[in-house]
Specification:
heterodimer; A: mainly alpha; Helix Hairpins; about 75% helix; B: mainly alpha; Four Helix Bundle (Hemerythrin (Met), subunit A)
């Protein structure tokens, strides 16, 4: 097995774990944690392809990963702000209990 | 395929699994911090020093702290009746397993076409700085705008509403 295949398999596994967390947990914060794991797995793919690709001096993969980290940070801030806002309103972070769109 | 890679891969996957499976949300936050650290070390192992240290700064330094803050601020909700998993957990698990099966199948099938051991790329932080100020200056400015907008948006979303008695 080539090194790149190993990294891609690890990234696929982390992505699947994050997806399972996002789809099965009831706590909204844990769903956000799952989404963060999925984003990180994608970043690992980008950097692995950059490292073993034909033109590493073009820096495309690293730049994509760095911008992706910045966007993920913004997403985490807004997502957790939303969770806190919903908690203040509904007194719960349980997604199964958030079944009304009416405030 | 060095032994370091396998250790880091096992650490990352085990931390990720722990984060998804544990009952206590604070323990989940700790485990996901471990997963972020494992991924940062994998980035360093891939000779992407800048991305690895950015990952440590942003994820372990900021996102993990944010997650812990959110967990502690929503502390009163931590009485999971009927388990921590949602009613449709079996469907979610099946979807995740199917996604992993497809991804793994694609990687295994294309393993012969993937490039072999490549020489370590000689990229310094100065090159990254030059690229950020040259070719990638427009995305950099857009990210700066996005971060400002997200900062203001997060504050406005989480701010107390006027006349909200709660």
């Amino acid at each position: 097995m080539t090194p790149l295949a190993g990294y891609l398999l690890v990234a696929a596994l982390v992505f699947a774990i994050g997806l399972a967390g996002a789809l099965t947990r009831r706590n909204a914060i844990l769903v956000l944690i799952g989404i963060e794991l999925m984003l990180n797995a994608a970043n690992l793919n980008l950097i692995a392809f950059w490292r073993y690709g034909p033109h590493p001096e073009a820096l495309t993969g690293v730049m994509f990963a760095v911008f992706s980290i910045a966007v993920a940070a913004a997403e985490a801030a807004v997502g957790l702000g939303l969770v806190i806002s919903i908690y203040r309103h509904a007194r719960t972070t349980d997604l199964d209990e958030m079944n009304r769109m009416k405030g | 395929m060095t032994i370091v890679f396998w250790i880091l891969a096992a650490l990352t996957v085990a931390s990720g699994l722990t984060a998804v499976l544990l009952k206590n949300t604070v323990h989940c936050a700790l485990a996901v911090t471990g997963a972020f650290a494992g991924l940062a070390l994998l980035f360093l192992q891939l000779d992407a020093q800048f991305a690895g240290f950015a990952q440590i700064l942003v994820y372990i330094g900021a996102v993990a702290i944010l997650i812990v803050f959110a967990i502690l601020l929503t502390r009163g909700s931590e009485t999971p009746q009927g388990g921590v998993f949602s009613r449709t957990w079996l469907a979610g698990l099946c979807i995740a397993a199917a996604v992993f099966a497809v991804l793994g199948w694609a990687v295994i099938r294309s393993v012969d076409a993937l490039p072999q051991q490549a020489a370590s790329p000689a990229v310094s932080v100065m090159d990254i700085g030059n690229a950020l100020m040259g070719r990638y200056v427009l995305p950099l400015e857009i990210v700066a705008l996005l971060l400002t907008a997200a900062l203001i948006g997060a504050v406005i979303v989480a701010m107390h509403e006027k006349g909200d008695g709660k």
